[in-house]
Every structure is written in C-alpha cells, then in structure tokens.
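Throughout this review, each integer encodes one residue's backbone shape. One record appears below.

===
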Amino acid sequence: MTLPLRSFLRRLSGCLAATALAASSAALAAFPDRPVKLVVPFAPGGGTDAIARALGVGMSQALGQSVIVDNKPGAGTIIGSDAVAKSPPDGYSVLVSTFAHAVNPSLMAKLPYDTQKAFAPVVLLARGPNVLVVRADSSYKSVADVVAAARAKPGALSYASQGNGTSAHLAGEMFTNLAKVQLTHVPYKGAGPALTDLLGGQVDMMFATAAAASSQVAAGKLRAIGVTTPGRAQALKDVPAISETVPGYAVESWYGLFVPAGTPTEVIGRLNAAAKKATESAQFRKMLEPEGLTVSAGSSAELGDFVQTETARWSRIVKENNVKAD
C-alpha cells in the first residue's frame, strides 16, 4: 500500500469516527425525541401504578416529551422486568421497580435475565411501610387478634398480595415465621385485584403497600391494624408497628427506576434529573406523604448501593425462613 493511500485511509477513518461521534452526540442531545415508557410490572389500579402515573406527569414536563405508563403484570414482576431488560439501551423504556427487584434473585430458581448485569440504576424514588389491613367490618381489631386467630386455626386465615416475591408476600411470610403461625397466601396480578377481593371478602387481610391501601383506609372501607416498619410511621402515627406485637418484625417497601444496562450515562443523568424534578413537585409529595412514603430521590449510584444491600439482606431472610415462590 502506497504512503498516499495509507494517509488517505487514515484521514477517512478519522472522518468516519468523527461523524459517528457527532451523530451519537446529536442523538444524546436530542433525548428524548419521542415518548418515554414507564413500565409498571403490575396491573393498573395499585400503588405502584398510581406512583408511576403521578411521576410520569412531572417527568413529562421536565423532559418536554410524553411519558407513558405501560402496565406489564405477572410472574412476580418478572414479565415487566424482562421486557425492559431486553429493550434497547436508549432510555426510552424505564422499569418502575419495587421491593421484588431485590428479592427475585434469591426467591426464583431461574430468571430470564441477570438482575445484577441486565439493569442500570436511575433513581430511588421513595421508601415507606407496608400496612396490615383488614375489612372495616372484620373482627380483627389488632395484630394480636390476628395472631390469636391464626394460632387457633392454623392455615385458615388468608392474606392477599400483589404477586409472588412482592413486599406484601414477603411481609406475610416473615410474619408467619416470627409469629409462629400459619397463613394462606393468595397472590394476584397487582394490588388492585388483591384489594378488590379483600374488600369482597374472598381473603382476610393484606400486608399492602401504604400507597395501595391508603385511599381505602381513608374511605373507611379498610382498617389499618399495623405497619411493617420497625417503629411507627411518621404519617401513620396512630397505627401500631407490627413489631410491638411480633418482636424483630420489619419490612420496608420502596420504588425506584431502572433502565437496560448499557444505557448512556448522559441519558441516565437526564432521566435522573427529570425524576427528581417530578418528586419535588407539591402534587407528587402531597400524594406520597399521607401514605407514609418518604421521597428519597438521589443519585443513580445511591439506588445501586441500596439495592445491593437489600438483595443481600433478603437473600439471607429467604434462605433462613425457607421462603418459596408459589
């Protein structure tokens, strides 16, 4: 190859690289240039769905693009999570993750994705308690009543959850272990259907997220008899902590955003900023605070560290309590 030809090819290669870099930079600068999907791995009507829809309004304003909620329920959040894991890493598919994200790796024998490698963290949105609720006309007025009834008739009492591996499920499993009782778990595809059957009398109780149950409690249709946090929740001061009756009991629900691994850091940064902006709105905080949830939006790294800690914690608890997915 002659020197002039080599020189020409080097210059051509450099031009092509510069063109590709410029195109990539332009694409990032334009993000988002079409609607962004918030994938909710639960059915419509539950707490996660409500939070996603409120968040989407604020993020849409911050991003200057529509933010659409896409419900993909089933398999204990795995169906929705898998859809995001296999989406292009461009920031247009965002997973609204919950407690189950940290539990499924130890609870499920095999996942269609590697949780540690398939996702990149965006932001931890909020943390809060689950609430043990019964119907307003239930004879159970306290956690002690539930414990006494469950001991009198092992397995006769049932509790609903929004799916296997969710906080409502594991909260019940931990309760049975620590209180030394037997309860029958009835999983649903989302908090909405679970609460519907609770209200209809098909199940006896639910360790519901505060976000899902608060409106029914406020309407007088459900009675809150215990919170799952170690102590009483700030926004639910009149509701005793379950740990007051069952020592050592503690479960916390949370909400965060993840995108497919490989999503450019600049895109993650824009999604993080938009989500934080949305959580700062008076409307969003007004929705969360009465439900016992505390906004905790920080950096993407903070969510990554938090989930690693949660994953290790629940891996131990699942093993020690012999928790199994149905």
In short: Residues 3-30 form the longest helix (28 residues). The two ends are 67 Å apart (CA to CA). The CA atoms of residues 177 and 321 lie 7 Å apart. The beta strands are 36-40, 67-71, 93-98, 119-135, 158-161, 184-187, 205-209, 222-227, 252-260, 294-295.
